Amino acid sequence: MSFVADLERMPSILNRRPLTDGERAAILRKQAEALIRHLYNPHPEYGWRVSSRADQFKGETINWGDLHVVLVEPMEDGSFIVTIEEASHDCPLFTAWMEKWLLDWGWKCEVRTEW
Prior knowledge:
Layout: H1 3-14, H2 21-37, E1 40-43, E2 47-50, E3 68-74, E4 80-85, H3 92-104, E5 109-114
Parallel strand pairs: 4-5
Antiparallel strand pairs: 1-2, 3-4
């Protein structure tokens, strides 16, 4: 069972209303931001430094100093568009990696990057 399937069952378990699209988008945003944080290691002098996990995206134009999720838009079909800022619109390895992890967790979404 996926994270999203568990999330969808939660309201009935807790005997409350289903989650709104906005609430689901907020949860998806936190998960996408967590994936981005996974690409960094803590550093005593700099706070955070990009880790070797980001080596798989070499050759893609990404500003590692300020990479972040700026918007998660719910779509009518139940999917989402996740917009990440501080990366070129042409980062197929990075967007595919994000989409794969989010899909593995049950999120139907498209990841877009922009400056």
